[in-house]
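pasting for ref
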Amino acid sequence: MNINSLIAKTYIVSNKKLTAVAVLGVLLGMSIYIFMNSMMVGFDKVQPLRFLSQLRILGCIRMMKLVKHLFI
């Protein structure tokens, strides 16, 4: 066993609370990263469909305004 492993093992065993906080911080950070990454992929898949439907709705509204303007 080399000196680096001995120092690391002594530090981890003696500071259990600090080690637990560090592990929880890494775990929380990785879970937030995975959540945000998957959410962005989901938005990328859904967004073009919503954009096209909004364009269709805007086209209908413009057409209704034109028809209303012509007949009133």
